[in-house]
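= Protein in question =
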Amino acid sequence: MNWIQQNTKYLTIFALAMLMALTRSDHFGSEITLPDASLAVFYLAGIFTGGLASFAVLLAEAALLDYLSISQFQVSDYCISPAYVFLIPTYAVMLFAGRWSAKYAQLNAKHLSRQLAYLFAAGSIAFVISNGSFYLLSGKFPEMSLMEYAGRVAKYYPDYMSSTLIYSFAILLLTRFVQAIYIEKYKLA
């Protein structure tokens, strides 16, 4: 067994942590930044590592990146409120959906569609948790009804989901192709 095989989980967490570090500064992206990949990172961590230790590492990284963005790079602290703690269940939903969908590991339409179904459901639940807690606990919407808030927030749902789906699907396809090539190479040898 070579060094890469022995350290696959550590390398995977490192790669996912780098993806989050490169994208966490902007939810939806801009001309100069990529959209946030945090939801996809937690989902993929569930698939590839499945461990609570990786969840803790990525959660600590997310908090550190937010702190540094606000304190050092003048990123707005608008989203920091008592609702911030609800990012823990938001990301936990993504990690556990990844763990549940990890059993669909073959490179075929059936397995990929099942993984994407888990991802879509988890992303939708994560959206409700993060935005619902922000509405209820941030103190920024005292005069706004739940229906009015939901109507205003609904326009963000497609962007919220699309970046998560794109990152996850691209990485799942890439890893499945690499695995297929690796398996085929060593079958022929």
Notes: The chain has eight helices and no strands. Residues 3-188 form one domain. The radius of gyration is 18 Å. The chain has a mean pLDDT of 88.
